[in-house]
């Protein structure tokens, strides 16, 4: 329950609760998150050439990100389980040759947004990439996981300053 019509993760006694979104209308919602895994140039070359001992790092990381988006409510306390209508995860070599850029675009039609699903997809894709490459390069870093764009719902459009706001693959 929420007090005074305001959505809150606290009940009247100050205890944590999942927000009641039953009165919110279901609308189309989409979120785009980004992140990066920085690594040595040699590691990036092995990934791109398909020479990593554990196999196709990019394909496995992409699938891990998609699966994670679908399980976000199981990972993040008080996060609503949502029926996702689309999840796209893209992993590409950074233009400066220092790592892999990751982006996730998640969509739903529902009463609450998908920002957490997009951020979770990027985070788990990055962790999977790290796990598959750590024997070659333990110095990799997972960096700058952030929400770039969110559309739909009561709060409308959010675009991070300076962001292009393009969904992956467009």
SSE diagram, text form:
Layout: E1 27-38, H1 41-49, H2 57-70, H3 72-75, E2 84-93, E3 99-110, H4 115-133, E4 141-151, E5 158-159
Antiparallel strand pairs: 1-3, 1-4, 2-3, 4-5
Helix pairs in contact: 2-4
Active site: 131
Keywords: Lyase, Molybdenum cofactor biosynthesis
Binding site for substrate: 78-80, 116-117
Task: List descriptors.
Alpha-Beta Plaits, 27% helix, 170 residues, 28% strand, alpha+beta, five-stranded antiparallel beta sheet, single chain, disordered N terminus, 4 helices, 5 strands
What does it look like?
With 170 residues, the chain is α+β, with helices and mostly antiparallel strands. It has four helices and five strands, in the order βαααββαββ. Strand 2 and strand 3 form a beta hairpin. It is elongated and about 55 Å long. GO terms for molecular function: cyclic pyranopterin monophosphate synthase activity. Residues 18-153 form the Molybdopterin cofactor biosynthesis C (MoaC) domain.
The CATH class is: Alpha Beta
Fraction of residues in helix: 25-40%
In this structure, how is the largest beta sheet organized?
Answer: 5 strands, antiparallel
Which shape, going by the Cα principal axes?
A: elongated
User: How many E strands?
Assistant: 5
CATH topology (level 3) name: Alpha-Beta Plaits
The helix-and-strand class reads alpha+beta
Secondary-structure element order, N to C: EHHHEEHEE
Mean pLDDT: 88
Task: Return residue spans where pLDDT drops below 50 for at least 5 consecutive residues.
Answer: 1-5, 165-170
Number of domains: 1
The Rg value, from CA coordinates, equals: 18 Å
Question: What is the terminal-to-terminal distance?
Answer: 40 Å
In spatial order, strands of the major sheet run: 2-3-1-4-5
CATH architectural name:
2-Layer Sandwich
Strand content: 25-35%
